[in-house]
């Protein structure tokens, strides 16, 4: 039958080379951007939590009134 060639070493080197080149393309945000985005996410999460809590109280009060 045909001879098989072991290309594992070449594939691993190629993968590592590609990985390094992709990491070189990463643009990390500066501290100010990270701070702004963190504040935006935290405030959105708190606001959504408050809205859900208020709706829960309204529904709970409505159900207790009906039943």
From TrEMBL:
Signal peptide residue numbers: none
HAMAP family: SecE
Name of encoding gene: secE
Transmembrane regions: 39-59
Domain of life according to the entry: Bacteria
GO molecular-function terms, A-Z: protein transmembrane transporter activity
Membrane topology, from the record: Single-pass membrane protein
Compartment annotation: Cell membrane; Membrane
Gene3D superfamilies referenced in this protein's UniProt entry, alphabetically: Preprotein translocase secy subunit
Provenance organism: Lacrimispora amygdalina
One GO location term (cellular component): plasma membrane
BP GO annotations: intracellular protein transmembrane transport; protein secretion; protein targeting; protein transport by the Sec complex
Protein name: Protein translocase subunit SecE
Taxonomic lineage from the root: Bacteria, Bacillati, Bacillota, Clostridia, Lachnospirales
InterPro entries (alphabetical): SecE_bac (IPR005807), SecE_sf (IPR038379), Translocase_SecE/Sec61-g (IPR001901)
NCBIfam families: secE_bact (TIGR00964)
Subunit description: Component of the Sec protein translocase complex. Heterotrimer consisting of SecY, SecE and SecG subunits. The heterotrimers can form oligomers, although 1 heterotrimer is thought to be able to translocate proteins. Interacts with the ribosome. Interacts with SecDF, and other proteins may be involved. Interacts with SecA.
Family according to the record: Belongs to the SecE/SEC61-gamma family.
Main location: membrane
Record's function text: Essential subunit of the Sec protein translocation channel SecYEG. Clamps together the 2 halves of SecY. May contact the channel plug during translocation.
Keywords: Cell membrane, Membrane, Protein transport, Translocation, Transmembrane, Transmembrane helix, Transport
């Amino acid at each position: 039958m045909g001879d098989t060639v072991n290309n594992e070493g070449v594939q691993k080197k190629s993968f590592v080379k590609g990985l390094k080149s992709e990491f070189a393309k990463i643009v990390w945000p500066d501290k100010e951007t990270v701070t702004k985005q963190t504040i935006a996410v935290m405030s959105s999460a708190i606001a959504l939590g408050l809205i859900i809590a208020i709706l829960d109280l309204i529904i709970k009060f409505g159900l207790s009134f009906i039943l």
